[in-house]
Amino acid sequence: MNETTSPTLVPGRHTADPETTPSGSTQERRNALRTRHARGLTTLMTERSDLRGVHALADFVADAVRWSA
How far, in Å, CA of 34 to CA of 14, rounded? Predict the structure, then answer.
């Protein structure tokens, strides 16, 4: 990258800039939501094995949660 181009911003990613860094309560809510969604997805994938292979990201998250337990 040269000096004339700016870095590409990725949605959902934050830099170390205090103005764009989420506050403590916002970060806590995001972590709680992330945990709740992972738990819900894992439960769904356990109850509905016919959904395996429908969405690759869902399969990946469910497998990652199972392997981390």
Answer: 16
